[in-house]
Amino acid sequence: METGQIAEKMPTARMLDVLVVDDERSILGVAREIIGEYGHRVWVAGNGADALLHLESEKADLIITDIMMPGMDGIELCRRIRAMQPSMPLAIMTGYSNRELLRQAEDLGILECLRKPFKACDMMAVVNRVAQQPSL
């Protein structure tokens, strides 16, 4: 499926401010392109500390983070975000199959998991599910 066809099959109820966190620049670029193509505002951060700094000054409607990052991993980032904003929609990305990390993510209420390498339609499915929820 072409990326341009995703919007036709998966209508977006509202535009979101999405923060994508990953230590791989290529993933950040792809995510920005995919999500931004549909009118969502996309912010990127290369690590958990930068993501938390961003959240001090900007709002987000959805945070998508890699699990395996140097320094603060994605699970710790999600714990800190949950402490600040308990109802924040969170999604994780991973190229690994670590059951313990996935269990920890589930315990934090993270039900969305993108497996790397992901397809554009998989990422937009996550964004669209959040966009179709009533705003908080």
Question: Can you walk through the features of this model?
Answer:
It is a single chain. The protein is α/β, with parallel strands linked by helices and 136 residues long. The chain has a single domain (14-129), classed as 3-Layer(aba) Sandwich (Rossmann fold), CATH 3.40.50. It is built from six helices and five strands. It has a five-stranded parallel sheet with strand order 2-1-3-4-5, sandwiched between helices. Helix 3 (48-57) packs parallel to helix 4 (74-84). The N and C termini lie far apart (32 Å). Residues 1-9 have low confidence and may be disordered.
Short recap of the structure:
The protein is of the alpha/beta class and 136 residues long.
Topology:
Elements (H helix, E strand, L loop, with lengths): L2 H7 L7 E5 L3 H12 L4 E5 L2 H10 L4 E5 L7 H11 L5 E5 L4 H9 L4 E4 L4 H12 L5
Parallel strand pairs: 1-2, 1-3, 3-4, 4-5
Helix pairs in contact: 3-4
Name the features.
136 residues, alpha/beta, five-stranded parallel beta sheet, 6 helices, 5 strands, globular
- Our count of helices gives 6
Give unreliable regions as ranges: 1-9
CATH class: Alpha Beta
Which fold name corresponds to the CATH topology? Rossmann fold
> What composes the largest sheet?
5 strands, parallel
Shape: globular
CATH superfamily: Response regulator
Strand order of the largest sheet: 2-1-3-4-5
Tell me what portion of residues adopts beta-strand conformation: 15-25%
Q: What Rg is obtained from the alpha carbons, in whole angstroms?
A: 14 Å
State the domain count: 1
Secondary-structure class: alpha/beta
Mean pLDDT, to the nearest integer, reads: 90
Cα(first) to Cα(last) distance is 32 Å
Do you know the CATH architecture? Answer: 3-Layer(aba) Sandwich
Q: How many strand segments?
A: 5
What is the ordering of alpha helices and beta strands? Answer: HEHEHEHEHEH
**Helical content band:** 40-55%
